[in-house]
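2024-03-11 09:14:02 DEBUG pipeline.ingest accepted 1 chain
2024-03-11 09:14:02 DEBUG pipeline.ingest length=166
2024-03-11 09:14:03 DEBUG pipeline.predict start
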Amino acid sequence: MRNFSLRALLAPLAVALLVACATPDASLLGADRDTVLARHGAPPEAFALPGGGERWFYPLGGLQQFVWAVDFDGAGRVAEVRQVRTTENFGRVRIGVDTQADIRREFGPPRIVVPFSRTGLVAWMYPYLEADLWRSEMAIYFDAQGIVRRVENGPDPRFLGDGDRR
């Protein structure tokens, strides 16, 4: 019985440690692309940045709440590593200025795209952990020209009642 209890305690700890090892972090600063590839594999999505740099996205887990950006400078070295789906980052979205390309480059691919035919807007839905506590979803609305027209957040519907039916 004691072995089972010990295993039950150690298994989640082992998983947490493995996930922590798989998460890009500040230890990558100054590393080259080959080092990042060796540690984390090919990124599911990458974007060019001004000045010849590049941003690689690494989503963590199936809920899409955590997406890490690894930014390379023009020389191909890691200049910054950060979790992009945060309240602070969403607060920097500029209504009437930012485009779909800007949003995709900042937050990665949306979980789902929802058209609203009555308003002519399309919402890109981004799950995130608000205040490191609430499972939320940010909706960024675009007009037909791909310009941000509205931003709003609310609870992630996947965790309400019967879940997300979209």
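2024-03-11 09:14:41 DEBUG pipeline.report The radius of gyration is 18 Å.
2024-03-11 09:14:41 DEBUG pipeline.predict end
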